[in-house]
Amino acid sequence: MKIGTLILFCCFCVIASATAQCDSDFDSTLKMKIYSYVDEMPQYPGGMDAVLLFILKNFNYPNQETLQGSFTLEFIVNTEGNVTNAAVRGKKSIELSPAENEMLKVVLKMPEWKPGKCSRKKVPVRMYLPIRF
Question: How many domains does the chain have?
């Protein structure tokens, strides 16, 4: 029974991924369609462990009066795999703490990602990266 359930589950996953829809919205500031979910999401070389290692190697916590707990970065991985339009979710640039500004600099230094794809076509994808100290 367990093997039959596992095979049925695997078949369902293959069918679901083959018929997956790509979600996108038109970004009026960028004047282009930005995807939030695609058939093949962007991938950092080496995976999420490598993202964390890159951040640890490149982030220098700035001197500031209070230790900041957490925030979420958002950025776009464009069709060439470059990180662009990095921002702290829910904040304007003038509201950013020194730690948030430093993290934005680090994210923009990242090497190229493998671009996301919708129906085998490379598309820009908005990504979110929660940061906790």
Answer: 1
